[in-house]
């Protein structure tokens, strides 16, 4: 592959070969080197460059000092090796969006009808004798009126254009917002590099080849690199290889680190060897055609369509953000997910279940659409039959050739009426309302420190019934300090003075803490005078370093004396070890190992302890139990986290021990001290938790701490209230209770545990995931649970991903956690979660408000058009008027009702849960109640209005007759009633005061007033296109008066208690388990939206087939065009099944540079041949 790219540098990423001369190694060399793995790579480095230091020399960088950071040098590196940036796909242009909006079926039907109508209006039958065609053509006053027949067609087309432009503009602004969000996430991604000997954090895009980067547990690697120094480094490369096993990296065996992979354990330093399009992720992107300048590449693309799916990250825009998915986005998304998920045999969509609201909406829209279709078909049939029977049977005329155009004109008119009924029945405003509401909320949530990565997460949060929260950093301040210590047989309740401790003990303690901690952890002076010192790195280690400083010692000189290179072996902290150890080689050939970790774990490994004299004495199991009882438990009950610090000497004469046998190494330790670390509860947390509990949300704490500490903190936070029988379990006990004899988790057992469980202590990542999955899948209780999870560590990834909404910490969170999350809390604060709940509920309510309003309009308009057409052969509301009602009422009302700001009162009700219907009984009562009022008024006006207003009747008007005052009044009254009903729709829970807080929403006020003004203009000056004629001031006052009646009628309706109206049905339910056909509930399959499945099944299979074939052709093609080397990324791929735990593209939205692209199974098929 290397040679291919050398000839054709992709776009701006590389310059012509000449610039490589400044460095002793060219980009091509580095790229071919990075494609090798493990042993091959080690040999290649040894043969060509001597060692990694040799590569550093050629790249003119120092492994210790790093680059100089001189702008000229950085620029040179950019020119020679490219920038660390993968150009995103070009956004869709406005015209493309317009074209997509035009694909809407109802609009197409309207366009066709309008064009036929236009064509016929210009076609005049040659001398067609009016008499011969019956009274059909009668009543055309003069030629001028007859000529005006084209206006209706033109007006329909014009309305269609407006609807399309509005939709396209919305999509465009949505995409723009989304890209803004994207770039904000990218700018916030920083990485630690060494420049001029200083450890600094720089944005990922500024990393250059030759930089020395520090990597640690939880990082997502932003570029390819070669390891210079590593401690116990393990990498999850599943995003590139599909192998779920963690790969050990070391200088001797496998020093190659690839971009887009996750550091699961350990730490180290690497020299960056490839960035941007030349890194492994970049190469894959290029293969998939995600980079720009597709034409220049040898891999020609066959149609944009496929790129857009492969480059899911970029096109995530189209998918993630369309709340009611367009057909295209949905298939491509399902296809994506399909190829990335485990190859499931059935056609069920193994993706994170559609958000709760989307599922309900899609279902409702399908139901409404079907009803509208039937109504419109019936209307057309009745109209045509009536006309045919009346003309040919009753009047007994015969069909004459020259009358055909006139008859056809009638049929077209009937067809247009039918389409109008359909247009009014389908609530086009729905997707718009959802989009506006979500986009508005997301924008505002930024101010409340919620960075929303997946739009629907914000609305799902409103349904949350449970929050599983991490303790450290979320509920507590994550500013750890040592407050108690047990040293030399004495339990100090405050940090002791250095002179009361034996100097030897003190020496050992200080050395142990200073050396056995990540050197990236340090305590810096405060930024502002009088502030607290800044803690950088691991907070627990900061607390221990703080203890060293409190003991009037300094850790820096010790670290300088023993740099990381001198460490013989490091066992880094991980979630299964729960301890960390560092081994040093002594001058006499022996070894000393310092260890620290959770006290109950490390004490079990101790066989001796330093006494008051600083001498090791025997430490038996019974001594240990006493110590646990007298020291550790009292500390834990004060909410302290206990850490044990220990050491062990390996004498030289015993020879070198087997370092890989951890159980033997981590044994026979000598305990130096046990310290109690306090992490104070954030002051605002107890109130926030109380708010959650009032709002019907259960907060559970899941932590790695011991159970007493956890219980103490849970009580301080208010998660555990005195006098309630809640469970606090340790991970081990939890597993015993929920697993059967074979060790499998059983849902029935879990259902007995989780409702009472409030604290899960000493839990592993798997426990957290099991708990979250168990609660989500559980069917006990009145409603299904919707679970939010907060986390900051790499180990929280699986649980964050499984949860309905995952919150990651913006400050303390690792990249892996952010990658797996839906919302990032930029201030790491639990209170922001409460804000998210408030916004989420507000979105849900806004959409319900809009539905309540919209469906009233629909019901009334459909019935009026239908009955009117059947009784008077002409819809009282004309096509253009219907479109105007549809446009203003849908588009503008969605704007007005979707932007209501949230109020605290939203937190006083219980959450809706997964299966509560979208349209409650109260809303149904409002919809039908208002519909009755409107229908009575309109039919009264329609059939008796001429007497009431003393005007001519507009019924039975001939084909091209001018608009009548009568029908204008009907139209005007209809719009006035909708306007005032829009105010009623502001409340959906049957509240009395519909004006409450109306000034807090300027958009609402301006929309209502604006619509009113437009309506005046249309009626007074709309004339023929709108079938309106100007009204007098009296008539206007009557129209407005009837409209105001809506508000009074609304009061009357809300006085009727809903519980008496048992006959009212609810609509828009979520899917219940019972409705899913058995065979689709395959193991681990999420629920699927069936309404959508029915529509899509055929299409998906068809498109997937095509897509597979194309991908394969592409891959083959790429390999044939002169690539000798098959890219390393494709080399090792025995299994794709293991990708399910892959924190990759299924939910990837982070910067394009970091995408873990899971290779789809289709590609793998090829490589194996």
From TrEMBL:
<keyword id="KW-0106">Calcium</keyword>
<dbReference type="InterPro" id="IPR022141">
    <property type="entry name" value="ATP_Ca_trans_C"/>
</dbReference>
<feature type="transmembrane region" description="Helical">
    <location>
        <begin position="150"/>
        <end position="169"/>
    </location>
</feature>
<dbReference type="InterPro" id="IPR044492">
    <property type="entry name" value="P_typ_ATPase_HD_dom"/>
</dbReference>
<keyword id="KW-0406">Ion transport</keyword>
<dbReference type="InterPro" id="IPR023298">
    <property type="entry name" value="ATPase_P-typ_TM_dom_sf"/>
</dbReference>
<dbReference type="Pfam" id="PF00122">
    <property type="entry name" value="E1-E2_ATPase"/>
</dbReference>
<dbReference type="Pfam" id="PF12424">
    <property type="entry name" value="ATP_Ca_trans_C"/>
</dbReference>
<feature type="domain" description="Cation-transporting P-type ATPase N-terminal">
    <location>
        <begin position="46"/>
        <end position="122"/>
    </location>
</feature>
<feature type="transmembrane region" description="Helical">
    <location>
        <begin position="1035"/>
        <end position="1056"/>
    </location>
</feature>
<keyword id="KW-0547">Nucleotide-binding</keyword>
<comment type="similarity">
    <text>Belongs to the cation transport ATPase (P-type) (TC 3.A.3) family. Type IIB subfamily.</text>
</comment>
<keyword id="KW-1133">Transmembrane helix</keyword>
<feature type="compositionally biased region" description="Polar residues">
    <location>
        <begin position="1"/>
        <end position="15"/>
    </location>
</feature>
<keyword id="KW-0479">Metal-binding</keyword>
<dbReference type="GO" id="GO:0098978">
    <property type="term" value="C:glutamatergic synapse"/>
</dbReference>
<dbReference type="InterPro" id="IPR001757">
    <property type="entry name" value="P_typ_ATPase"/>
</dbReference>
<keyword id="KW-0597">Phosphoprotein</keyword>
<dbReference type="GO" id="GO:0005388">
    <property type="term" value="F:P-type calcium transporter activity"/>
</dbReference>
<dbReference type="InterPro" id="IPR006068">
    <property type="entry name" value="ATPase_P-typ_cation-transptr_C"/>
</dbReference>
<keyword id="KW-0067">ATP-binding</keyword>
<keyword id="KW-0109">Calcium transport</keyword>
<dbReference type="GO" id="GO:0046872">
    <property type="term" value="F:metal ion binding"/>
</dbReference>
<keyword id="KW-0472">Membrane</keyword>
<keyword id="KW-1278">Translocase</keyword>
<dbReference type="InterPro" id="IPR018303">
    <property type="entry name" value="ATPase_P-typ_P_site"/>
</dbReference>
<dbReference type="Pfam" id="PF08282">
    <property type="entry name" value="Hydrolase_3"/>
</dbReference>
<dbReference type="InterPro" id="IPR059000">
    <property type="entry name" value="ATPase_P-type_domA"/>
</dbReference>
<keyword id="KW-0460">Magnesium</keyword>
<feature type="transmembrane region" description="Helical">
    <location>
        <begin position="1003"/>
        <end position="1023"/>
    </location>
</feature>
<feature type="transmembrane region" description="Helical">
    <location>
        <begin position="927"/>
        <end position="945"/>
    </location>
</feature>
<dbReference type="GO" id="GO:0051480">
    <property type="term" value="P:regulation of cytosolic calcium ion concentration"/>
</dbReference>
<feature type="transmembrane region" description="Helical">
    <location>
        <begin position="371"/>
        <end position="389"/>
    </location>
</feature>
<feature type="region of interest" description="Disordered">
    <location>
        <begin position="1"/>
        <end position="22"/>
    </location>
</feature>
<keyword id="KW-1003">Cell membrane</keyword>
<feature type="transmembrane region" description="Helical">
    <location>
        <begin position="97"/>
        <end position="120"/>
    </location>
</feature>
<comment type="function">
    <text>Catalyzes the hydrolysis of ATP coupled with the transport of calcium.</text>
</comment>
<dbReference type="GO" id="GO:0005886">
    <property type="term" value="C:plasma membrane"/>
</dbReference>
<dbReference type="GO" id="GO:0016887">
    <property type="term" value="F:ATP hydrolysis activity"/>
</dbReference>
<dbReference type="InterPro" id="IPR036412">
    <property type="entry name" value="HAD-like_sf"/>
</dbReference>
<dbReference type="Pfam" id="PF00690">
    <property type="entry name" value="Cation_ATPase_N"/>
</dbReference>
<dbReference type="InterPro" id="IPR023214">
    <property type="entry name" value="HAD_sf"/>
</dbReference>
């Amino acid at each position: 592959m290397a040679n291919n790219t050398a000839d054709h540098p992709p776009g701006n990423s590389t310059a012509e070969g000449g610039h490589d001369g400044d460095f002793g190694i060219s980009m091509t060399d580095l790229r071919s080197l990075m494609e090798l793995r493990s042993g091959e790579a080690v040999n290649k480095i040894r043969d060509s460059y001597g060692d990694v230091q040799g590569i550093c020399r050629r790249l003119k960088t120092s492994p210790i000092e790093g680059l100089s950071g001189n702008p000229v040098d950085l620029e040179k590196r950019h020119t020679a090796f490219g920038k660390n940036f993968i150009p995103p796909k070009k956004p869709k242009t406005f015209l493309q969006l317009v074209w997509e909006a035009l694909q809407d079926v109802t609009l197409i039907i309207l366009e066709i009808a309008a064009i036929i109508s236009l064509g016929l209006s210009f076609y005049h039958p040659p001398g067609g004798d009016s008499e011969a065609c019956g009274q059909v053509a009668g009543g055309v006053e003069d030629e001028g009126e007859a000529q005006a027949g084209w206006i209706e067609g033109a007006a329909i087309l014009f309305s269609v254009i407006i609807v399309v432009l509005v939709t396209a503009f919305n999509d465009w602004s949505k995409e723009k917002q989304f890209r803004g969000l994207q770039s904000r996430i990218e700018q916030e991604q920083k990485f630690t590099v060494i420049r001029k000997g200083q450890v600094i954090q720089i944005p990922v895009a500024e990393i250059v080849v030759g930089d020395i980067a520090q990597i640690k547990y939880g990082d997502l690697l932003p570029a390819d690199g070669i390891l210079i120094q590593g401690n116990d480094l393990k990498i999850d490369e599943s995003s590139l290889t599909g192998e779920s096993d963690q790969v050990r990296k070391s200088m001797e065996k496998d020093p190659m680190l690839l971009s887009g992979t996750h550091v699961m354990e350990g730490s180290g330093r690497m020299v960056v060897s490839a960035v941007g399009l030349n890194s492994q992720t970049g190469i894959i992107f290029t293969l998939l055609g995600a980079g720009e300048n597709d034409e220049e590449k040898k891999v020609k693309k066959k149609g944009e369509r496929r790129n857009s799916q492969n480059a899911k990250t970029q096109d995530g825009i189209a998918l993630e953000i369309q709340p009611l998915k367009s057909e295209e986005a949905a298939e491509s998304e399902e296809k994506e997910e399909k190829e990335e998920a485990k190859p499931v045999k059935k056609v069920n969509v193994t993706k994170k279940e559609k958000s709760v609201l989307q599922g309900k909406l899609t279902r409702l829209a399908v139901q409404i659409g079907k009803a509208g279709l039937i109504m419109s078909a019936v209307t057309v049939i009745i109209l045509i039959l009536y006309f045919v029977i009346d003309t040919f049977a009753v009047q007994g005329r015969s069909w004459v050739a020259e009358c055909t155009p006139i008859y056809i004109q009638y049929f077209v008119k009937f067809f247009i009426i039918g389409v109008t009924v359909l247009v009014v029945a389908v609530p086009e405003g729905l997707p718009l309302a959802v989009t506006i509401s979500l986009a508005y909320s997301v924008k505002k949530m930024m101010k409340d420190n919620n960075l929303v990565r997946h739009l629907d997460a914000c609305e799902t949060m409103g349904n949350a019934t449970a929050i599983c929260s991490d303790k450290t950093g979320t509920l507590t301040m994550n500013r750890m300090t040592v407050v108690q210590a047990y040293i030399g047989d004495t339990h100090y309740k405050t940090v002791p003075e250095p002179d009361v401790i034996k100097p030897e003990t003190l020496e050992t303690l200080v050395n142990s803490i200073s050396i056995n901690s990540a050197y990236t952890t340090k305590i810096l002076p405060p930024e502002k005078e009088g502030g607290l010192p800044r803690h950088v790195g691991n907070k627990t280690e900061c607390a221990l370093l703080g203890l060293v400083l409190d003991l009037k010692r300094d850790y820096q000189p010790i670290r300088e004396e023993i740099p990381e290179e001198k460490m013989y072996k490091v066992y880094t902290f991980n979630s299964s070890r729960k301890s960390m150890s560092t081994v040093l080689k002594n001058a006499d050939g022996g070894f000393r190992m310092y260890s620290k970790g959770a006290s109950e774990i490390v004490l079990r490994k101790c066989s001796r302890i330093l006494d008051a004299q600083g001498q090791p004495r025997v430490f038996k199991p019974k001594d240990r139990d006493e110590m646990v009882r007298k020291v550790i438990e009292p500390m834990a009950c004060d909410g302290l986290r206990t850490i044990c610090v220990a050491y062990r000497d390996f004498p030289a004469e015993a020879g070198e021990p087997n370092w890989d046998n951890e159980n033997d190494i981590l044994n026979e330790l000598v305990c130096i001290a046990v310290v109690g670390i306090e992490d104070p509860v954030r002051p605002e947390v107890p109130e926030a938790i109380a708010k959650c509990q009032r709002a019907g949300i259960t907060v559970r704490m899941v932590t790695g701490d011991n159970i007493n500490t956890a219980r103490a903190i849970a009580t301080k936070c208010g998660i555990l209230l005195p006098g309630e029988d809640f469970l606090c379990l340790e991970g081990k006990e939890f597993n015993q209770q929920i697993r059967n004899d074979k060790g499998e988790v059983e849902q029935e057992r879990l259902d007995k545990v989780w409702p009472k469980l409030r604290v899960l202590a000493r839990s592993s990542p798997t426990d957290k995931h099991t708990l979250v999955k168990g609660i989500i899948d559980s069917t006990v209780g009145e409603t299904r649970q919707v679970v939010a999870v907060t986390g900051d560590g790499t180990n929280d990834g699986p649980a964050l991903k499984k949860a309905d909404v995952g919150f990651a910490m913006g400050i303390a969170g690792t990249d892996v956690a952010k990658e797996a999350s839906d919302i990032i809390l930029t201030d790491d604060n639990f209170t922001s979660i409460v804000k998210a709940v408030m916004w989420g509920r507000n979105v849900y309510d806004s959409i319900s408000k809009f539905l309540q309003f919209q469906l009233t309009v629909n019901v009334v308009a459909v019935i009026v058009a239908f009955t009117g057409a059947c009784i008077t052969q002409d819809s009282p509301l004309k096509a253009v008027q219907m479109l105007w009602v549809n446009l203003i009422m849908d588009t503008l009302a969605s704007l007005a009702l979707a932007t209501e700001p949230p109020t605290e009162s939203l937190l006083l009700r219980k959450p809706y849960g997964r299966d509560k219907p979208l349209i409650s009984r109260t809303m149904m009562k409002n919809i039908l109640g208002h519909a009755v009022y409107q229908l009575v008024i309109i039919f009264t006006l329609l059939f008796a209005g001429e007497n009431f207003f003393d005007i001519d009747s507009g019924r039975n008007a001939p084909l091209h007759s001018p608009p009548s005052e009568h029908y204008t009044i009907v139209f005007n009254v209809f719009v006035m009633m909708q306007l005032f009903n829009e105010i009623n729709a502001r409340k959906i829970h049957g509240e009395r005061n519909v004006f409450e807080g109306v000034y807090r929403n300027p958009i609402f006020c301006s929309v209502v007033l604006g619509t009113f003004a437009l309506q005046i203009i249309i009626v007074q000056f709309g004339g023929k296109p709108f079938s309106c004629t100007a009204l007098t001031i009296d008539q206007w006052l009557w129209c407005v008066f009837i409209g105001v009646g809506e508000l009074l009628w609304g009061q009357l309706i809300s006085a009727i208690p809903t519980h008496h109206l048992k006959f009212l049905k609810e609509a828009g339910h979520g899917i219940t388990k019972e409705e899913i056909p058995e065979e689709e509930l395959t193991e681990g399959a999420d629920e699927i939206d069936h309404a959508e499945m029915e529509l899509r099944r055929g299409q998906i299979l068809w498109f997937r087939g095509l897509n597979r074939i194309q991908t394969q052709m592409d891959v083959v093609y790429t390999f044939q065009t002169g690539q000798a080397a098959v890219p390393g990324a494709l080399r090792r791929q025995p299994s794709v099944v293991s990708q399910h735990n892959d924190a990759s593209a299924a939910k990837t939205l982070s910067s394009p540079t970091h995408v873990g692209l899971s290779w789809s199974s289709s590609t793998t098929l090829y490589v194996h041949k």
